């Protein structure tokens, strides 16, 4: 059974610090001043327009002080739509699949040792 992905917390950070995932990181997000439409696709958006919009959203994410917190939030939820933390929904699905495979691989040796013992 897969374990839930836990956010990496830095015990040296005070609660509420933008880099503390337990705090209000989103209040520091660069996208708060941008149009939400930049980060979420309108219905029936043509591919070229979607790719252009996603690149523009990623540029905003690239200058964001809490990009990693946003990305981890989107991976933990998981957010099925939009650009979060500089990643599209498809890119996040790839990351989640890799994490699941890694988790299975890490559990496999432990199960083999238990079976041998």
**How large is the count of helical segments?**
3
How many domains make up the 3D coordinates?
1
Low-confidence runs (pLDDT<50, min 5 residues)? 1-21
Terminal Cα span: 21 Å
Assembly state of the chains shown: single chain
Query: What is the string of helix and strand elements?
Result: HHH
Strand content: under 5%
Portion of residues in helices? 40-55%
Question: From the helix content, strand content and strand pairing, which structural class follows?
Answer: mainly alpha
Q: Please summarize the sheet with the most strands.
A: none
| Overall 3D form | elongated
Please report the total strand number as a whole number.
0
Instruction: Report the mean per-residue pLDDT as an integer.
Output: 80
> How large, in whole angstroms, is the Cα Rg?
18 Å
Condensed summary:
The protein is an all-alpha fold and 117 residues long. It contains 3 helices and no strands. The chain is elongated, with a radius of gyration of 18 Å.
């Amino acid at each position: 059974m897969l374990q839930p992905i836990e956010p990496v917390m830095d015990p040296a950070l005070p609660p509420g610090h933008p880099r503390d995932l337990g705090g209000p990181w989103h209040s520091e997000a660069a996208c708060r001043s941008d149009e939400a439409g930049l980060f979420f696709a309108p219905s029936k958006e043509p591919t070229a327009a979607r790719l252009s919009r996603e690149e523009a959203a990623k540029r905003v994410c690239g200058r964001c002080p809490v990009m990693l917190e946003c990305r981890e939030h989107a991976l933990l939820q998981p957010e099925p739509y939009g650009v979060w933390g500089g990643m599209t929904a498809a890119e996040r699905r790839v990351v989640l699949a890799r994490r699941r495979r890694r988790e299975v691989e890490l559990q496999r040796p432990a199960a083999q040792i238990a079976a041998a013992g």
